[in-house]
Design a protein that fits this description.
Elements: H1 5-27, H2 30-99
Length: about 100
């Protein structure tokens, strides 16, 4: 699973928030401590969003890899039907011309 930009940013915001909260609590600055807590929540949310994006991308890639051979076979079958139909039309026209 690849790490998304959201996950990395979320981890950074979570760490920065912890530092702000600790500093705010250490110096008695409730506003700074609260900002740190908010930044941690933001970081958790970003990491969650990143995990969703990563799981979605992984599932898309897995499905694409699994379905690719089937899609290629269907495309081949359709090409075969089209060329066979064209051959039949040509033969039908040639037969009609010879019969006249």
């Amino acid at each position: 699973m690849s790490t998304s930009e959201s996950t990395i940013k979320g981890k950074f915001d979570e760490a920065a928030g912890k530092v702000k909260q600790a500093v705010g609590e250490a110096i008695g600055n409730e506003k700074l401590a609260n900002q740190g807590a908010v930044e941690q929540v933001k970081g958790h949310a970003e990491q969650s969003w990143g995990a969703v994006k990563e799981a979605t991308n992984d599932k898309i890639n897995e499905t694409r890899e699994r379905e690719q051979p089937k899609a290629e076979q269907r495309a081949h079958d359709i090409r075969e039907k089209v060329t066979s139909t064209a051959q039949n039309v040509k033969e039908h026209i040639q037969h009609a011309i010879k019969s006249e």
